[in-house]
Amino acid sequence: MKNLKLKLIVMNFLEFAVWGAYLTCMSRYLATHGMGTHIGIFYSIQGIVSIFMPALMGIVADRWIPAQKLLGICHGMAGLLMAGAGLYGLSAGDAVQFAPLFTLYAFSVAFFMPTIALANSVAFTALIKGGYDTVKDFPPIRVFGTVGFIATMWLVDMLGFQATAHQFIVSGALSLVLAVYSFTLPNCDIKKIEGKVDLVDALGLRAFALFKQKKMALFFIFCMMLGVSLQITNGFANPFLGSFGANPEFANTFAVQHSNILISVSQICEAVCILLIPFFLKRFGIKNVMLLAMFAWVLRFGFFGLGDPGMPGVLLFVLSCIVYGFAFDFFNISGALYVDQETDESMRSSAQGLFMVMTNGIGATIGTLSAQAVVNKFVYHLPETADFMTIWDGWRMSWYTFAGYALIVAIAFWIFFPKTPVNKDLEVKH
């Protein structure tokens, strides 16, 4: 039984190490290679492919290919394409062009994004077969995914890869390692359906019937609205911190020189918060946990707008990173557990895919493209002669805009989402 948990720990470590290698610093690379106004499209493609790829792969995993094998296939394709993007970036140097880099990156992401939901399905299925309680035993396993994310953030930072295409090589190599490893994971049975099967069942679209339930429909709608916030700091925090390098007062500060390590405080706090999820869910219920996540996003953005890399301003950046643990985990991980508990086994992978569609798909796409428009308006469309203080004010206005949106969503959720019974949101399943 311990061997099972160890296998799932390694899977989660590698799954998120792949993502951590580039997610928070790719924008720094783009900004320093003349593609600052394209940061949004690079991050939004994760959302665009998440609208259909996780659901599609969830269908395949439910009906035709065991989830652990499909996880390996997807990582194999993602790794090759991401390594290709890195090799192109290195060979092109300062002459790197948007079209070829984006094409390789986009196809890699199209195969990577479904693996998050597939990894969840593999873990949940294996734990249930092993007689474990997913609510109690999954979070301590999932925390190692965050550890993996942090590990590659630090690795890329310390190796000086924040502003180079080497970060894509690191990600691609790890993805290929996980591709091979996935075939050693416990088997996930496909769902055999006897008798006549209608088209909806054949395509695995039954998960969309969850929208007929008012509570689930509201849950998915608010997941989409909160998903808008998910990738904003991943896309713009690093170039924001890097912009302080134009001011001699801040140029040599830790926050500017090692932005990725500073940002990794977010993931460190995320790791701690994962362990708090079972307690909070069972004591306060899904509505209060989600509400806490939404208000944490308000603080996440607000502290970025108020802080600076010097002392004591950098402490506000640190506070922003601390609240990120609540903002991300209490939404993403709790949501995945909630979907797992509220759906039938026959559509579990499809339902996880639908959760990804609403959050990392539609929500994140709207969020990153909208955030790019905001940052373009206040920062990147400023005249080249703009001084540092003008640029800084532009960044502040951007962060305050994002905080205002998160506050509106939190208030709407508090008003419209039905009250849920404490201690009854999640029943123990074996």
Topology:
Elements: H1 2-20, H2 26-32, H3 39-50, H4 53-63, H5 67-92, H6 98-129, H7 134-158, H8 166-181, H9 199-202, H10 214-227, H11 232-243, H12 254-257, H13 259-306, H14 314-342, H15 348-380, H16 388-416
Helix pairs in contact: 1-6, 1-7, 1-8, 2-11, 3-6, 3-15, 4-6, 4-15, 5-6, 5-8, 6-15, 7-13, 10-15, 10-16, 11-13, 13-14, 13-16, 14-15, 15-16
How would you describe this protein?
This protein is mostly helical. The chain has a single domain (about 1-190, about 205-415), classed as Growth Hormone, Chain: A, CATH 1.20.1250. It has helices at about 1-20, 25-30, 40-50, 55-65, 65-90, 100-130, 135-160, 165-180, 200, 215-225, 230-245, 255, 260-305, 315-340, 350-380, 390-415. Helix 1 (about 1-20) packs antiparallel against helix 6 (about 100-130) and helix 10 (about 215-225) runs antiparallel to helix 16 (about 390-415). The chain starts with a helix and ends in a 14-residue tail after the last helix. The relative contact order is 0.16.
Largest sheet: none
Order of helices and strands: HHHHHHHHHHHHHHHH
Instruction: Tell me the CATH topology.
Output: Growth Hormone, Chain: A
Helix percentage range: over 70%
Structure, briefly:
With 430 residues, this protein is mainly α. It has helices spanning 2-20, 26-32, 39-50, 53-63, 67-92, 98-129, 134-158, 166-181, 199-202, 214-227, 232-243, 254-257, 259-306, 314-342, 348-380, 388-416.
